[in-house]
Design a protein that fits this description.
Elements lengths: L1 H27 L5 E4 L4 E3 L5 E10 L5 E10 L5 E6 L2 E4 L4 E10 L4 E9 L7 E9 L6 E9 L7 E4 L4 E3 L5 E4 L2 E4 L7 E8 L5 E6 L2 E3 L5 E5 L9 E3 L1 E5 L6 E10 L6 E9 L14 E7 L7 E7 L5 E9 L4 E10 L2 E7 L12 E9 L2 E9 L2
Parallel strand pairs: 2-10, 12-22
Antiparallel strand pairs: 1-3, 3-8, 4-7, 4-9, 5-6, 5-8, 9-10, 11-14, 13-20, 14-19, 15-18, 15-21, 16-17, 16-20, 21-22, 23-24, 24-27, 25-26, 25-28, 28-29
């Protein structure tokens, strides 16, 4: 009888251990987590106009959850900001407020948000910081910032990329959604450059104005259709499809003003089938630390920068005058990784000594371009 009791006791203990282990394993397999797709984080809005950020929250955990959204604002006095979801909009009441809790969201469920901005009367910059936290586990929290500007210069541009890196499975489709804004007070046209680097069987396209352009080679350049009015925007789509092959692919988009060539912006969009999107999987910065010294200068200055990566990069360095006219090409060829210094003596391609004034050095390395202003004094 004692032996039977001992056997039953051991079985009960074993069952209890297995049950506890199962509960523990189940708990570990059901994390509280969420993702928030911010989309473009910067927009341009003319005075007395209306714009909207579109974003969404997805419950990526294995348990239903609800969320609290806290908002902090810095904006001109007469602007209006609303948070909208589930067909209800909540207007701001002061510079910091809490939106009523987002109701229970099932695992895999999504809540669409609209953040509405109306610029009444006043020019100026605005910044809106969104904090979202899980009501089940307050340590699961994320913070995102949306910036808004009004046009101030004659010619200006903002290329707002939004998310730049995503994880994908093989044979999956994903879409990045950057936005180009004419941030100037004058109408302008633009040219787009696309540089791609991807596994052999992947498909990438970029689309705007209802037309999609599959890259026909590693690098291509096309005019963007039509003139953009001040404050106008153009929505782009960068589409990745991971056909057959695992790996990491990227496409770098560069956009240049056709009126002022010094206005140039780039963004790189990366997709990877790796289990973790690590820093090492993101394309290395190929151009950094751009500066000119001395500045102002006479008779010469050194344009200094660093070429990143591990391989030589194609580089072009052009000098433009204040009207956007190219006056000198200093470099056209490959540069090895590491610090660089290129001298300019204030002369044109023909050797003419240029007059005093402001000049722009446009430095292109790989698919990245940056511009620096220099003052030639006499």
């Amino acid at each position: 009888m004692n032996a039977l009791r001992k056997t039953l006791l051991c079985l009960c203990i074993a069952a209890s251990c297995l049950l506890a282990f199962g509960q523990s394993s189940q708990a570990l397999a059901e994390p509280i987590d969420f993702s928030f797709r911010q989309g473009p984080s910067t927009m341009v809005i003319p005075v007395n106009d209306y714009r909207q950020f579109h974003s969404n929250l997805t419950n990526t955990g294995d348990t239903a959850d609800s969320y609290t959204l806290n908002l902090t604002m810095e904006e001109p006095a007469n602007w209006v900001f609303n948070v909208c979801y589930d067909d209800v909009c909540y207007p701001e009441i002061n510079t910091t407020f809490t939106v009523p809790a987002v109701g229970m969201v099932d695992p895999g469920g999504t809540v669409d948000f609209d953040f509405d901005v109306t610029s009444l009367m006043d020019e100026g910059p605005a910044s809106y910081t969104i904090e979202i936290l899980s009501n089940t586990d307050g340590s699961v929290v994320g913070t995102w910032t949306f910036d808004v500007v009004t046009p101030s210069e004659g010619y200006d541009m903002v290329f707002s990329p939004g998310e730049g890196v995503t994880h994908m499975e093989v044979n999956e489709f994903y879409q990045f959604l950057p936005v180009l804004y004419n941030a100037g007070s004058m109408a302008d046209t633009y040219t787009l450059t696309a540089v791609r680097n991807q596994p052999e069987n992947w498909s990438t396209t970029y689309c705007f104005d209802g037309i999609c352009y599959p890259p026909t080679n590693i690098t291509q350049q096309i005019p963007m259709n039509g003139t953009m009015a001040p404050g106008a925007d153009m929505h782009l789509e960068i589409d990745f499809t991971t056909l057959f092959d695992e790996g990491t692919g990227s496409i770098t988009i560069g956009i240049r003003s056709n009126t002022d060539p010094s206005l140039y912006s780039t963004a790189t969009f990366t997709a990877t089938t790796g289990s973790v999107v690590g820093v090492e999987e993101v394309p290395a910065t190929v151009l950094s630390d751009l500066r000119a010294a001395p500045n102002p200068f006479n008779p010469k200055t050194d344009i200094r920068f660093t070429v990143g990566g591990t391989a030589a990069q194609n580089a072009v360095i052009d000098i433009f005058d204040a009207s956007g006219r190219r006056v000198r090409t200093l470099v056209s060829g490959d540069l090895n990784p590491g610090p660089q210094s290129v001298a300019w003596d204030g002369r044109s391609d023909s050797g003419e000594s240029l007059s005093a004034g402001v000049y722009l050095a446009s430095v292109n390395v790989g698919a990245v371009q940056q511009t620096i202003k220099m003052s030639l004094v006499k």
